[in-house]
């Protein structure tokens, strides 16, 4: 069933349009080679992914700083693998990762097609908790920057999704009304519940292993958006 009376479509970026997992793996392969880290990247990513997820939850809740996230997720991953390295190397890797990550440009399946279709009817925007210094580079390098009229980052807003202030900031920048807006994202709490509580419609892009028991519209592929917009 189509959502009616929608004028503005807000997207999360990482894991929603931009293929974070694929691009992150490529960045780690590059920086491990650069810094002569003799560890299998697949083994590293197996422990890193849940640790990174945990640190982003802490960051979103203001329990760790940006710097602590960047260092801690690497330190804890190496410790879990009993791979010995020094703090100086970890800090180099943390800096290299942020530098190399936006150089990889893979989008999730259907992203370009969906954006190209939606831009003819709606005004498109980004709301992201990602680091400000890399989010625009990701969008430019992947060819999607020009689809969006506004980009609102958590660092600009001073709070992170699901805090209502970031949605308020995004709506102010875009001139949108919440009842005429919809948020699409992969994080149920940050993107979907946060947007809904501020009065926006919301569509949950979930993976197969994520909880399907909630009241929101759910899709598993971006192309399914076109069934609702």
TrEMBL record:
Q: Which InterPro entries does the UniProt record give?
A: HAD-like_sf, HAD-SF_hydro_IA, HAD-SF_hydro_IA_YjjG/PynA, HAD_sf, PGP-like_dom2, Pyrimidine_5'-ntase_YjjG
**Tell me, what's a Pfam family for it?**
Hydrolase
Gene3D superfamilies reported in the protein's UniProt record: HAD superfamily/HAD-like, Putative phosphatase, domain 2
**Domain of life, per the record?**
Bacteria
Put simply, this protein is called YjjG family noncanonical pyrimidine nucleotidase
């Amino acid at each position: 069933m189509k959502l009616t009376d929608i004028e503005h479509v807000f997207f999360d970026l990482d894991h929603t349009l931009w293929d974070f997992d694929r691009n992150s793996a490529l960045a780690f392969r590059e920086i491990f080679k650069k810094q002569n880290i003799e560890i299998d990247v697949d083994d590293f990513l197996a422990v890193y992914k849940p640790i990174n997820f945990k640190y982003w939850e802490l960051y979103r809740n203001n329990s760790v700083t940006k710097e602590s996230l960047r260092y801690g997720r690497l330190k804890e991953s190496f410790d879990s693998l009993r791979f010995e390295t020094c703090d100086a190397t970890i800090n180099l890797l943390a800096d290299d990762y942020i530098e190399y990550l936006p150089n990889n440009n893979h989008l999730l399946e259907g992203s370009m097609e969906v954006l190209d279709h939606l831009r003819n009817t709606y005004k498109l925007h980004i709301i992201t908790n990602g680091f400000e210094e890399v989010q625009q580079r990701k969008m430019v390098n992947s060819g999607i920057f020009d689809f969006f009229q506004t980009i609102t980052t958590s660092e600009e807003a001073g709070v992170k999704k699901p805090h209502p202030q970031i949605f308020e900031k995004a709506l102010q920048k875009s001139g949108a009304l919440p009842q005429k807006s919809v948020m699409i994202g992969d994080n149920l709490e940050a993107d979907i519940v946060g947007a809904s509580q501020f009065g926006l419609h919301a569509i949950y892009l979930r993976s197969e292993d994520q909880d399907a028991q909630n009241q929101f519209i759910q899709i598993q592929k971006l192309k399914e958006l076109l069934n609702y917009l």
